[in-house]
Amino acid sequence: HPPWPPLSRLPVRPSVRPSVLPPPLSDMKEKNPWHTPVTIIITVIGVIAIVALVTVAVLQNKPLLQKYKYGIVLDAGSSHTALYLYEWPAEKDNNTGRVEQIHSCKVKGKGISSYASEPWKAGESLTLCMQEAERWVPSKRHRETPLYLGATAGMRLLNMENSSASDKVFQAVEGALQRFPFSYEGARILSGQEEGAFGWVTVNYLDDRLKQGLETTGALDLGGASTQISFVSDSYDGSESPSNSVTFRLYGNDYNLYTHSFLCYGKDQVLRMVLAQQTQSGPTSILDPCFHPGYNVTKFYSELYDSPCVSDRKPPGAPEAFAHRGDGNFQQCQEVVRTVFNFSSCRYRQCSFNGVFQPHLQGSFGAFSAYYFVMNFLNLTDTSIPLQAVKEKLLQYCATSWDQIVQQHPGVKEKYLAEYCFSGTYILTLLTEGYNFTSENYSNIKFIKKIKGSDAGWTLGYMLNLTNMIPAEAPDSPLLPHAGYVSVVTIMAVVLFVLLILSLRPLWPRCSKQPQIV
Ligand SMILES: O=P(O)(O)OP(=O)(O)OP(=O)(O)OC[C@H]1O[C@@H](n2cnc3c(O)ncnc32)[C@H](O)[C@@H]1O
């Protein structure tokens, strides 16, 4: 083979010249439109703006390190005193922060009204619980923490019986409370109406029914010396029996509440009335159907009749004491319990008992304090079971011998244990015959102790009212919660970014127009 001619001498094959001559090779590196300064600047600014938007949204809405405020309420009841400590976020005390019970303390011993003859002991009794509260509240918050004491039916009765003794108890209590570093806001007797209404506020506040304007729950409170019923009924506008009406405007809603407190109808005072009924002739021994067979305890007339609820019935010439013996008969017990209610006269459209007006029962009810203690012990908190089954359970329980009851419940305080048959019978009779709950609406009752960690009772409602923590009008609330706000801003930022990219479309490099080099 001849050697290949040098390249330069190879004949050039004629070719079809392109109509447009390609640019010189040095110019062939086509300019990328993304690299134009304007595009780069816009993109960078866009990205910075989006990052800044999201950062600000996240930082601005990050919950601040929470600070809290505190409030203390002492419930000076007839049977005992309890301290409740509440906490709420400091920044939100203007109506939006949730108030929660963070601690409670049961004062050792009896209620303050039982110290009438040695008032200083009433003040002294509060010391341990107050010291506990001092430890629970951060010391820098002590001075601003309001401290209230509210006394209920025990002191109402003492005040009726001996107002100077009641004043002395208050002086002693006041002196003791003022020694603590809190902001003492006073000690006073709550009216029965206040006790009922604040119990209702507590239940509905904790259930979030007030803020949301939902149908409210009624409140049934059974104490040692009084009992309260409070509910909203369409059939009650306050015109009939105005003394039972309490009106509220809460979170922008008007409420016309029916409430009544029956003094002497707490379970301890009713027991006195039931025993008074059985000791009218001044016997030395009684066979009580409300106590278990085999129960036998000596009781003193002077102690039994030492209460304004029964004092006028003390049989003249009665012996010093009587043997209180149990017979364990639910039906007969219910008959004696019925005698404490007067159903004979009613000057209104309808009454509960003792001539007290009561509108139609409406909605659901929360039953707390002794309602809960007793029904919980008896395993009867399930109100979906028929009323007949509740009666049968009580019939069987009351008939159980005292020995067996003591054996079956070794850890339970003997005073409570002895009285569950009586208390269960009283609760059933009060609900069905006193307040007219029927087998149709019995299941509307819920026996409760706590709601979301806070005890059901008047104390929280009382504090919310005194600290103006429930506004009359609904507070302005942010459109979205924190998480929702951040999500919306993030989504918007992503959408903006995509739109920015799309808006720069004309500058995108286009494959079809790429010059072909042949
Ligand atoms: O409202 P007032 O009438 O003044 O009474 P209180 O404030 O003392 O009433 P409580 O709700 O503290 O208690 C109601 C009743 O329940 C009783 N009680 C408390 N704990 C109990 C339990 O575990 N079992 C049975 N009864 C209990 C207590 O002795 C009272 O007779």
Automatic annotation (TrEMBL):
<keyword id="KW-0547">Nucleotide-binding</keyword>
<keyword id="KW-0472">Membrane</keyword>
<comment type="similarity">
    <text>Belongs to the GDA1/CD39 NTPase family.</text>
</comment>
<dbReference type="GO" id="GO:0005901">
    <property type="term" value="C:caveola"/>
</dbReference>
<dbReference type="GO" id="GO:0009134">
    <property type="term" value="P:nucleoside diphosphate catabolic process"/>
</dbReference>
<protein>
    <recommendedName>
        <fullName>Ectonucleoside triphosphate diphosphohydrolase 1</fullName>
        <ecNumber>3.6.1.5</ecNumber>
    </recommendedName>
</protein>
<dbReference type="GO" id="GO:0004050">
    <property type="term" value="F:apyrase activity"/>
</dbReference>
<keyword id="KW-0325">Glycoprotein</keyword>
<dbReference type="GO" id="GO:0045134">
    <property type="term" value="F:UDP phosphatase activity"/>
</dbReference>
<dbReference type="InterPro" id="IPR000407">
    <property type="entry name" value="GDA1_CD39_NTPase"/>
</dbReference>
<dbReference type="GO" id="GO:0004382">
    <property type="term" value="F:GDP phosphatase activity"/>
</dbReference>
<keyword id="KW-0460">Magnesium</keyword>
<comment type="subunit">
    <text>Homodimer; disulfide-linked.</text>
</comment>
<keyword id="KW-0106">Calcium</keyword>
<dbReference type="Pfam" id="PF01150">
    <property type="entry name" value="GDA1_CD39"/>
</dbReference>
<feature type="transmembrane region" description="Helical">
    <location>
        <begin position="33"/>
        <end position="59"/>
    </location>
</feature>
<keyword id="KW-0812">Transmembrane</keyword>
<keyword id="KW-0067">ATP-binding</keyword>
<feature type="binding site">
    <location>
        <begin position="224"/>
        <end position="228"/>
    </location>
    <ligand>
        <name>ATP</name>
    </ligand>
</feature>
<keyword id="KW-0732">Signal</keyword>
<comment type="function">
    <text>Catalyzes the hydrolysis of both di- and triphosphate nucleotides (NDPs and NTPs) and hydrolyze NTPs to nucleotide monophosphates (NMPs) in two distinct successive phosphate-releasing steps, with NDPs as intermediates and participates in the regulation of extracellular levels of nucleotides. By hydrolyzing proinflammatory ATP and platelet-activating ADP to AMP, it blocks platelet aggregation and supports blood flow.</text>
</comment>
<dbReference type="GO" id="GO:0005524">
    <property type="term" value="F:ATP binding"/>
</dbReference>
<feature type="active site" description="Proton acceptor">
    <location>
        <position position="195"/>
    </location>
</feature>
<keyword id="KW-1133">Transmembrane helix</keyword>
<keyword id="KW-0378">Hydrolase</keyword>
<keyword id="KW-1015">Disulfide bond</keyword>
<feature type="transmembrane region" description="Helical">
    <location>
        <begin position="484"/>
        <end position="504"/>
    </location>
</feature>
<dbReference type="GO" id="GO:0017111">
    <property type="term" value="F:ribonucleoside triphosphate phosphatase activity"/>
</dbReference>
